[in-house]
Amino acid sequence: MKKLQFLSSLGFFLFGFLLFSNLKAQNSTSSSLYFPPLGEETWEKMPVNQTGWNQGKLGEFLAWMENTNTRALLILKDGKIVVEEYRGNRLTGLGPMNEGSIWYWASAGKTLTATLMGMAEEEKLLKRKDRTEKYLGKGWTSMSPKQEKAIRLIHHLTMTTGLNDQGVDLDDTDPSSLTFLAKPGTRWSYHNASYTLLKNVLESASGQSFETYFKEKIGDPIGMGGFWQRTGKNHVFYSNARSMARFGLLLLAQGQWDGNQIVTSDYIREMTSSSQGLNPSYGFLTWLNGKSSFKLPAIQREFEGPIVPSAPKDMYQAMGRNGQFLMVIPSENLVIVRMGAHSDTSLIPYRLIRDMWDRFAPVIE
Fold this sequence. Notes:
By secondary structure, the protein is α+β, with helices and mostly antiparallel strands. It has a domain at 48-127 and 191-364: 3-Layer(aba) Sandwich (Beta-lactamase), CATH 3.40.710. It contains eleven helices and 13 strands. Strand 4 (227-231) and strand 5 (234-239) form a beta hairpin. Residues 72-339 form the Beta-lactamase-related domain. InterPro entries: Beta-lactam-related, Beta-lactam/transpept-like, Diverse_Enzym_Activities. It holds the Pfam family Beta-lactamase.
């Protein structure tokens, strides 16, 4: 009996030690980060010679980036700006890009919405296991009542609704375009309309406009500017590169901003972990590196290995059309923002991000 009591006590001690160590590591990471002040344009910079990076390789990387139609490139180390470059004209075509210039996030905005969903759940406004029809009402699809009732919010977050993606407009949220193909949770498919409907879900759950909810929960607390706008049939976020970097810094700090917990660290960890086994490189509307395989939009084929082999395994990304990238690398305390255009017009231009890391990895090795 004493032996069992000893083993039980030892187990509790080890559990407590591991929990304390994990929390200590999180706090250490957060406390080592710099957070730019709210309501100000000032942002502390870190000279390249203080990073320990290969300056020659960095020069080669930046020279290569000049030929990729990049409009904004921002690299943070420990929250401080190491690289900030702007090229080409603004989105309006009126004048050159600068730190205040607005650009579109495209599908990189999905990770913003995923974060808001986690905050709404924390406020008990919704549960991810809830049926979608609870917030959108019956008949939000053209499925049978039984098929529609099977879809839950978690399926929207993980791109596993089972909505038909064959020969339909994937941006169209009209019920006529939302038909059955597979049981929810049995098929991974990158479906924009499924994501866009989360705007309506959040508005129904919060009783506020999506824009107001975003501004109150994320925008104002971290000093993040920008706006949501209907673009075609999509709901797209627009901001400058620094605002995208602020959001990346919030994620890097596990949901904390300068001592204030904006979103729980548990949810950030969950959002940036494999959310299902159909595509292990996908969390909650967020792309993950370092996994055993990945799938791409519009392709059911499974590719072996990580999305970006040359990048750190713990990197996760918000990615959008034409190379809108927000990359967070916890092991390196890095946040990288890339905005611009690119000849690869696929929904997720993974070749561009691979090319970037083939050239940037030697910089930080």
